[in-house]
Structure prediction request, 525 residues.
Amino acid sequence: MINTKKLTTCSKDISLAGNILKNGGLVAFPTETVYGLGANALNEEAVKKIYEAKGRPNDNPLIVHIANKKDIKPLVKQVTKKAQTLINTFFPGPLTIILPKSEKIGNIVSGNLNTVAVRMPQNEIALQIIKEAGVPVAAPSANTSGLPSPTKAAYVEDDMMGKIDALVYGGDCEFGVESTVLSLASEPPVLLRPGAVTKEQIENIIGRIEISKAVLEEMGENETAESPGMKYKHYAPKAKIILVKGDKETYTRFVNSKKDCHALCFEDDDGVTIKKVTYGKENDDLSQAAELFDALRKLDKIGAKKVYAHMPHKEGVGMAVYNRLVRAAAFRVIDLTKPFVLGITGQTGAGKGYVGKYLSKLGFKVLDCDEYSHKLTKKNAPILKVLVQQFGEEIVENGTLNRALLAKHAFSNNENKKKLENILHPAILQECRNNAKGTFAVLDAPLLFESGAQNDCYKTIAVCAPIDIRKNRIIKRDDLSEKQVDLRIKAQPNEEYYINNSDFTVINDGRDIKSQIDRILEAIL
Ligand code: TXA
Ligand code: MG
Prediction:
């Protein structure tokens, strides 16, 4: 345990902070983005201590902070033309640039890469401390690795007391999200982390840049992120966060129906009645950035377990806010602008209807393909003409479909079956889409995969039951002989087919179905 000195911003304390840094100690100090945890960037022993205090993986490189624009020169191989233009425009400020490193930069600070990240903060206290130190200062955000970055001194206290030599108390950070990180080590330059300096602003100055895939999307297991920091769990509070995309009304209706949950919403989401923490205003991305990390830490302090966060837009500084929040949510997103459909499938008699009924009690709307099929083929329906053309005049009498006769024709051979499906499936699917608009729905469809309807589903659930249970159910329900039931069962794919193609399985053999479904919903909602 180290006795962490609490320092003010008086000149005596600033010079003390600078001295501690110069001599190999760790000092946390405010910047305009978030609090940083500084060490002498040219002293590998000092830099090692940063990784220890934060619990940071040692392949995740640090940003080197300077107090004068010209101080970048000794740290990099070459200050390119684009780099110089960016320095002239955005330094000091919340932009970090990456260039091939000079031999002055050690392997620990650069996480063994051959590049170095450099930034000149605009916060006066930060600048003075770096000047006092007289050396470039390596400084990641001053949080425990994986937690939200600290935007207030109190949060640095929570994470770092007893682990560092000093903390300079300098008020709340202005921008609240970490600097924009841009790599100039490749052409075109690549945006590795969005921040308060936006993509549009950079492009206005140096032309087109690329956005690293990891900025907005989840990386696959075998993909490598261009910035090592992107592959680690980030900004994660203890609570489970779920991002919810939707306008004010839809979001409000959705969260207000939730029990034992918290909302992380905008100040203007005034209709939200469940417990809430706000992060800025809906149309003000700078206010969202300034308050986001504070809000995430507050949610932990009040013991929130599950949090539905109102999704910000992704333009301008909104891209930085979204980037942090979607990581805090481990990429869990519910898109209320699209229908949220759960597909239920399985063999005949397995209990799809029962599962549908339970979900409908929970507020889901059941999209019943059988019902739509009947509706589409009712008396004088236009689709009957198409069926007549394919299967003959006799299947329709006085405008009414003879269903038994159609079934006989259609199931006589595979080709006819396909013909019927090609006519009915697109129409049924359209009916499902019309009915699913703006709601939570379950799609009850034995032919979920064959019809292509699974593409409209958020997740799919297979309902399974042992064959004797299914047989008894069908015999009772549809008043069929055992032989007829066997034929029906035989006409369907086996159980593995449904299980392998679905995201989840519910087993209906006397086990509690409700708790199985509750668990599935817990995993996806
Ligand atoms: O606003 C900020 O940048 C704050 C304040 C304290 O200045 N610092 C900060 O540092 O956010 P840190 O270490 O929490 O985030 C630095 C990010 C990491 O994602 C890291 O992987 C990336 O920058 N990075 C650093 N050097 C890099 C390099 N040479 N190549 C690619 N990515 C690099
Ligand atoms: Mg960080």
